[in-house]
Design brief:
Spore Coat Polysaccharide Biosynthesis Protein SpsA, Chain A; nine-stranded parallel beta sheet; 10 helices; binds calcium ion; alpha/beta; 16-stranded parallel beta sheet; binds uridine-diphosphate-N-acetylglucosamine; UDP N-Acetylglucosamine Acyltransferase, domain 1
Length: 461
């Protein structure tokens, strides 16, 4: 039967020492809670209920997921109390009830399905997920007797002997609905933290002579709880390793995968090569056979196939067509459309502009709010002056135009196809097709001036 899933996310996350709710701290570019939601929805649940408290509105807005039913826990009196707040929402659930915590983001759908399967097979009152931790500090320890799991004791309540137990409670449970609903009211708070502990339901089950099943998760990383920034960094490393491994098995080369970040919503083609310190963020798509050199960051962009992005470039919300070459040190800002085989070189910034097929802007240029045709050459130091301090204006450059170095195109302005702009020009009026635009005082030659000047200086000494 389909499970109803309750995710606990009301806690303050005191150990994060943050003004941001723990559930919203980003992991692999997405809030912690999003990862748990994804794992939960993977099981095809009947319903997902989220218990919120601390910064409830912010968390609700951040997840913006209409499939999730939200209940509030106004005061955080413990994990057992948190589940009590969901009683109304879950009381008519036909199937089992799974409880997850928002701070175990590495959990997979697969493991949840295994917990569910064991729960169904064992007909236990409660099935919990456990794992063996080499350093179990901080976790609830699983106390076993001759007939299996007897109870869970929290670190702060444990005896010295119990603290030596390495099997810990992952905070992930599957309950028979009737058992859970009848047990919640029986939880007390006579413990070191004065809280209503959900894991106390395990001892209650044993007291009622009901069976308790436990699934031992072989990978402790998967159920790691993120309580501090240090835990967050470890989770990030695990996530990175998982994602990068998956892409490498799909045919992506990574020269130093430990330094490469690929967001969970990004996609990479075959024979993509990622050099060290590359970050592929957001909904970026990279086509086959692209090579991305060190230090480059690409965010929410579409890169076609056979594109080369040289070192230390930044590409945001842009489109790059096949065989284009970007960088080194190029900046494509939102709305840059780089067409086939165009070249954008070092210290060139492009914003809200199209650069046509085969066109080149190879050195030190700013192109903003412009439409540049095909086979255009933009010389070194060219600037589209798109802003007069009040408003933005367009620059249009036709096919085959040659824009000489260090010229300024003062928008709004149109350069007709095949026109020539002389180096150092300040173009304020439209230039017709095939014409020359030049704005330069005529050059003067003064014969012998330099040697006369040198002699004068020598006399004065
Ligand atoms: C909990 C378990 C512990 C287990 C560990 C696994 C309890 C008492 N202890 O400890 O056995 O080994 O998880 O990671 O359950 N929350 C609420 N409302 C509250 C308190 C907590 O919603 O009043 C939420 C938190 O936001 C968090 C989750 O419950 O997502 C777990 O709370 P946390 O304080 O992190 O519990 P741990 O001390 O880690
Ligand atoms: Ca925790």
């Amino acid at each position: 039967m389909k499970p109803t899933i309750v995710i606990l996310a009301a806690g303050l996350g005191t150990r994060m020492k943050s003004s941001i709710a723990k559930a919203l701290h980003p992991l692999a570019g997405q809030p912690l809670i999003r990862h748990v939601l994804n794992a939960a929805f993977g099981t095809d649940p009947e319903q997902v209920v989220l218990v919120l408290g601390h910064q409830a509105d912010k968390v609700r807005n951040a997840i913006a997921d209409s499939r999730v039913r939200i209940v509030l826990q106004a005061e955080q009196l413990g994990t057992g109390h948190a589940v009590q707040q969901a009683v109304e929402a879950i009381s008519s659930s036909p199937g089992p009830i799974m409880i997850l915590c928002a701070d175990t983001p590495l959990l997979t759908t697969n493991t949840l399905k295994e917990v569910l399967a064991l729960h169904e097979k064992s007909r236990a009152a409660v099935t919990l997920l456990t794992t063996a931790m080499p350093d179990p500090f901080g976790y609830g320890r699983v106390v076993r007797g001759k007939s299996g799991v007897m109870r869970v004791v929290e670190e702060k309540d444990a005896t010295a002997a119990q603290r030596k137990i390495q099997e810990v409670n992952a905070g992930i449970y599957c309950f028979e609905a009737k058992f859970l609903l009848s047990s919640l009211a029986l939880l007390g708070k006579n413990n070191a933290q004065g809280e209503y502990y959900l894991p106390d339901t395990i001892a209650l089950a044993r007291k009622k002579k009901r069976s308790v099943a436990a699934l031992l998760c072989s990978d402790p990383d998967e159920v790691m709880g993120v309580n501090s920034r240090y835990d967050l960094s470890r989770a990030e490393a695990v996530m990175r390793q998982r994602t990068n491994r998956r892409w490498m098995l799909e045919g992506v080369t990574m020269l130093d995968p430990g330094t490469v970040f690929v967001g969970s919503e990004a996609s990479l083609g075959r024979d993509v090569v990622l050099y060290p310190n590359v970050r592929i963020e957001g909904r970026t798509k990279i086509g086959d056979t692209c090579v991305i050199y060190p230090g480059t960051r690409i965010v929410d962009s579409v890169i076609a196939s056979h594109v080369t992005v040289k070192d230390c470039s930044v590409i945001e919300e842009s489109n790059v067509a096949s065989r284009a070459i970007i960088g080194p040190f190029a900046h494509l800002r939102p709305g840059a459309m780089i067409e086939e085989a165009a070249h954008i070189g070092n210290f060139v910034e492009i914003k809200k502009s199209t650069i046509g097929k085969g066109s080149k802007a190879n050195h030190l240029a700013y192109i903003g709010d412009a439409t540049v045709g095909a086979d255009v050459n933009i010389g070194a130091g060219v600037i589209t002056c798109n802003y007069d301090g009040f408003q933005k204006f367009q620059t249009v450059i036709g096919d085959g135009v040659f824009v000489g170095s260090d010229s300024q195109l003062v928008a709004p302005v149109t350069i007709g196809r095949g026109a020539l702009i002389a180096a150092g020009a300040t173009i304020t009026r439209d230039v017709p097709a095939e014409a020359l635009g030049i704005s330069r005082p005529p050059q003067e030659i003064r014969e012998g001036f330099a040697s006369r000047r040198r002699k004068m200086k020598q006399k004065k000494r």
